[in-house]
């Protein structure tokens, strides 16, 4: 935490008093702090005590012209390495998910490009309400990190369940993790290095029907593929995302083709060609039923034998596509053993230019998790990338792709 700058956004909830301890502990660890209180938060803690503990002015009002003059909301966010929201109330999360900016806290959260860690605290029924579930899922997809809430007794009598603010050491441990990942992120460069390019991305699992109600699937969440589509669009590319069944919202500014099976995925990729870059991040089911019956298979006391055939390899098919082959073909290799070696042999076998190898051993929590630890295998060899968020992997990969295309175009001219 030494010399890291943290902007703490304090929401209006009964747990807000714990922020005072959080501020003290973070400062003990060497971090410098600034704090913003929502109007509701000032009913639970006073700006005066927050100011005393942070040793800085406590910020409350967007329209305080003096503040805007001295230090505007953009500067507040720019001069921080991390924003922590504690307690993150249901209302603050809803505002963030909806992109509102009607007070200082929400304006900072909408304007920032810094990592944001939210520590929610609210009544369990509010936390479990479908509206809050939706907002949290949206914010997770947007890259907001969460710590807690914990389950336990509430301040109200006879209320228990998920909704307690994470303990101060838990919030600090989560903050440390986000900051460590952040160090390894390629700084997001301005400009649109993929402008004028078409990028195709496959993402998520495929579902192969066994009968009309059952299917073969896998644990892929689609987070990495969707993050790549989002990063490519942010860098100015026209993006086609061919997505299997996932629980993620469609990334903004991206054409999304929703498919279920491997055969549909291949067809969607083929009809989207030509492209400059194709990234195959989907976890395609290796097999499908030779022929799935139209009617539900009945239980008869004997388990049915499933006659499986291999699915087409989408990456290998597109990589051998002759004139229509994209300039840069990137595959993923989900491995559990010697990741770098398997990725390198997959690169050759499938005809990809690059392979991103990742270790999906269950103890790494890659499947469904937010971070990724990858090796990039190119024609030049193997690079080990430090563990970083899936968004950071996506940005770094797309910047590398832009660089590759630029050099190739320059060489051709
Ligand atoms: N892939 C594909 N079509 C398939 C299978 C895989 O496009 N039918 C792509 C994946 O999107 C990924 C790469 O190939 O980019 C490697 O996927 P992976 O599952 O690691 O490899 P497999 O070929 O399935 O080999 P194995 O599971 O035996 O390791």
Write a concise keyword list for the protein shown above.
14 helices; binds cytidine-5'-triphosphate; 8-stranded mixed β-sheet; 2 domains; alpha/beta; Rossmann fold; 6-stranded parallel β-sheet; 413 residues; 23% strand
Structure description:
The termini are far apart. The protein folds into 2 domains: about 5-185, 3-Layer(aba) Sandwich (Rossmann fold); about 200-410, Rossmann fold, CATH 3.40.50. Helix 1 packs across helix 9 (about 170-185). The protein is an alpha/beta fold. A hairpin with a 2-residue loop joins strand 20 (about 375-380) and strand 21 (about 380-385). Residues about 185-190 have low confidence and may be disordered. The protein has 14 helices and 22 strands. An 8-stranded mixed β-sheet has the order 13-12-9-14-17-18-20-21, with helices on both faces. Strands 3-2-1-4-5-6 form a 6-stranded parallel β-sheet, with helices on both faces. Bound molecules: cytidine-5'-triphosphate (CTP). Cytidine-5'-triphosphate binds near residues 262, 284, 314 and 346.
Biggest sheet: strand arrangement = 13-12-9-14-17-18-20-21
Low-confidence stretches: 184-190
CATH topology of the largest domain: Rossmann fold
Under CATH, the homologous superfamily of the largest domain reads CoaB-like
Beta-strand residue percentage: 15-25%
